[in-house]
Every structure is written in C-alpha cells, then in structure tokens.
Design brief:
The protein has about 290 residues and is α/β, with parallel strands linked by helices. The chain has 12 helices and 11 strands. Helix 9 crosses helix 10.
Length: about 290
C-alpha cells in the first residue's frame, strides 16, 4: 500500500467507490502498474499509454567504461539524480568487478543527491556522507555546486535518461572536468498507436484526468500531439475539461510551457499524486444533487 492508499477514516484500505465513474489516463512506464492498480482499486477506469519507456543501456560496456573513467578521475563531487540510476550503476559496477574501487572513490567524494529517493539509494550502497539539493531538480543540484566555495573541481554526474544540456553546460563552466554516467535511457515505445489514441481521447474530452510522472513523458506526449496536428485541441482540453495532474514541478514544466496548469501534490511522490487526483476529482468533478432537485 502506498502512502496515498491510507484512508482518512482509519479503515484497512482505500474507498473502492472514490473514483467510480471516472476515466483516468496514465502516461508513465516505470511503476505504471502501481499507479494503475491504485486508481482501479478506487473504482476508476484507466487508459494506459506509456509516452516513453525506460531502457537499460543495451551495451553495458559503455557504462563500465564510464565507471572506469570515474574511478581514474577520482572526482571531488558526485551528483546522483535518481535512485534507480544509482542502484543500476552499482549493480553493473559490481558485475564488472569494479564495485569495490568505485565505492572507494565515492567514499572520498562529496555526494549530492537529488531528493530522498536518490539519497536512499546512496545510503543503500553504504555511502552515508551525502547531502541533498534544496529542491528535487537537477538545476538545484548544480546551484549547490556553483554556490560552493571550492574551485577547480572534478565532477561526475549520474544522468537520468534525459540529458539536460543546459544544466550540463552550467556545470562545465565552473568545473575542471565533468564526467557523465548513464545507467539507463528513455526510448520511444515500439508502437505509438496507444499514445495517439490516448491523445485523441483527451481531445474528445472523454477522460476526466491525465497523469504525468516524468518531464520526458510529458514532453513526448506534447510532441506526439503536435505530430498528430492536435496540439492546440489537446492543450485546450487539458486547460478546461480534462484535469492534468503532475507528480511535481519538474514534471509539470513542459505542460506549463504549453499553457497547461496541472494540479500537483505538496509532496512529489506517487502516493501523494494519487491522493491529489482523488481529492480534486471528488471536489470539482462530482455533481451533487440535493433531495427534491
């Protein structure tokens, strides 16, 4: 049970009728089963169309070589952006016989993690001396590096499948060298028919809400709408008829740039997103009739 599954009345599970009659779209790939299951347990009909899929690098040789570069460079600062990426990095390093030397290098570096999930993965690897960014964004991580008093630093950054060249350039401007590590990448699903159907359903206003859990997926959804010549209709539907819901401000970014103001939870977690969607739909999308109406 996720944190969003905890009922307010102290009963043993979510209200099975809370989302009865609502149709909700899901654009995520990773952990989509958890999100779909939570929505369906509350009575929702779910339409699932992953905008992007997470794929481990086909050639682990690339990640192994990046790891060897990090070990040789002995960076002063290591930026960890995702828990999944950190875990996979350590798994591949261990399989290549590089786990011990990598851990030794990381123990001597200053580690900055982008949020509690990344921090948890760092600590799970036995690395306790880590700090988090002020906000759960790559930009905030790099702000912390820029504002630090040291200069001439060697920095390694674990990328999260979606390379932000703007932030990398900011990092290069204040560093002697920047090494990148890419444990996984985003790829387009083999068939985009499901996403096209989801977008058409939004344009036809036949969904009540559409959820987003990553900025790349939001970007890919908007790009697909453009390729279908339905971008304006899609955004208009999300502004007025279909509730757009994002797990946090980073995910919301592409939508906001498109003129869509998605609802967001206070805590940037899937459980909190589920609760936010449930509460919003109950408050704003349920028609209540008084006796005698």
């Amino acid at each position: 049970m996720t944190s969003g599954d905890q009922p307010k009345d102290g009963s043993s599970g979510p209200r099975v009728d809370q989302l009865r009659g609502f149709r909700i779209g899901v654009t995520s790939d990773r952990r989509s089963a958890d999100l779909i299951s939570a929505l369906q347990r509350r009575g929702a009909q779910v339409m699932h169309a992953p905008a992007l899929k997470i794929a481990d690098n086909d050639q682990d040789d690339l990640l192994v070589n990046e790891t060897r570069d990090v070990i040789a460079a002995r960076p002063d600062i290591v930026l960890v952006t995702t828990g999944y990426g950190m875990r996979r990095w350590m798994e591949v390093a261990d399989a290549a016989g590089l786990g011990a030397p990598l851990t030794s290098v990381l123990e001597k570096a200053r580690i900055l993690a982008r949020g509690p999930k990344a921090l948890g993965a760092v600590r799970a690897a036995g690395l306790d001396d880590a700090d988090t960014s002020d906000a759960e964004t790559t930009a905030s991580l790099i702000d912390k590096v820029i504002n630090a008093p040291e200069s001439g630093r060697r920095i390694a950054i674990q990328l999260h499948g979606y390379t932000d060249e703007v932030q990398l350039e900011r990092l290069r401007q204040v560093s002697e060298s920047v090494l990148t590590v890419t444990p996984y990448r985003w790829v387009t699903p083999s068939s985009t028919d499901r996403l096209a159907k989801l977008i058409q359903t939004v344009c036809d206003k036949e969904l009540d809400a559409l959820t987003f859990t990553s900025a790349p997926a939001a970007d890919a959804t908007l790009a697909t709408a453009k390729s279908m010549q339905r971008f304006e209709d899609f955004c208009a539907a999300l502004r007025h008829d279909v509730v757009a819901a994002a797990v946090g401000p980073v995910t919301a970014g592409p939508l906001v740039e498109a003129g869509v103001d998605p609802i967001q939870p206070e805590r940037f977690r899937m459980g909190a997103l589920i609760k936010r969607v449930c509460d919003y739909l109950e408050q704003h999308k349920v028609i209540r009739l008084r006796a005698g109406d």
